[in-house]
Sequence to fold (354 residues):
Amino acid sequence: MNSVDSAFASIPAWHELPTAWGGPLSPAKFRIQPEDFKVFEVPIVEPSGEGEHCWLHVRKRNSNTQWVARQLARFAEVSASAVSYAGLKDRKAVTEQWFSVQLPGRPDPDWKSLQHEDFEVLRADRHQRKLKTGALRGNRFRLRIHDVSASADGVDQRLRQLACGGFPNYFGLQRFGHDAGNLAEAEKLFTRPRSRLPRHKRGLYLSAARSALFNQLLAARVADGCWNTAMPGDALQLEGKSACFVAEAIDAQINHRLEALEVHPTGPLCGDGEALVSGQAAQYEARQLQAYAAWIDGLQRFRVAAARRALRVLPGDLQWRLDADGSWVLEFFLAAGCYATSLLREVFDLDSEE
Fold:
């Protein structure tokens, strides 16, 4: 077995990653029907009303984003490459998200006449630029959880902990594909870097690999009880921002800002570029990821840009209620790139129907 094989074999399954607040309180059922998982995309900008790109606000049910994009392209009689979106949304869900369709010199199709049982166009407006991947502020979620056996007081207390203290910012299970297939493909890519792959697939596999490495580092810090505290040399990220600064020493002011959730410790998104951390934090990361040197080398060879990601995420405006039928309804906002399932696993041992 070579070093790449052994690295892949040692990546823990997503359900094995340690939790931060004492583990799930009880089994529960999730996504029994698409309406149990509602997602509302929050864009960075609104369409201006002018331009060659038609932005569409679409509600879809039980269908994936790429399939809807193809239907929009077919209706507008444009190539699939003329349709873009900010992010992929879950299939078994009811989601509202934006698409853009490039229509240079052409009038809008009659979007109101586009009738489909799985999606509908809610709004159409023109804009100067196409919608780029990642161009969203975040998502608002409304989730329903069934068959919870834990006490209402217990669930209420745990959710208060998450509202006040945040949760580990793990990449979600869907990042890695069915049965971690994206990681298996990343392993093949690192072993045979000259393999011919479509660009989007190569990007998907490389992203999965560095997401798994981030989860591995975060899991170590959760297990060591330092996922929400800082060590000397940590790169700290400002709440709601991408900017980081290195804390060479941890003093009372840094600790106060951490406790106030003004800043968060970060972990590496491995790739080509500076790691930013130094001292004890750099030594810790090197020790935790030393078994994955072949993967890190592979990411660097493919010129994947190194970055940092917060280890802790605070859900925005987290609200919850227990309905008369015994199901729990949770509503909250998460910034782009954060996963609702990473919040839920801190409370429930989920049995998803998907």
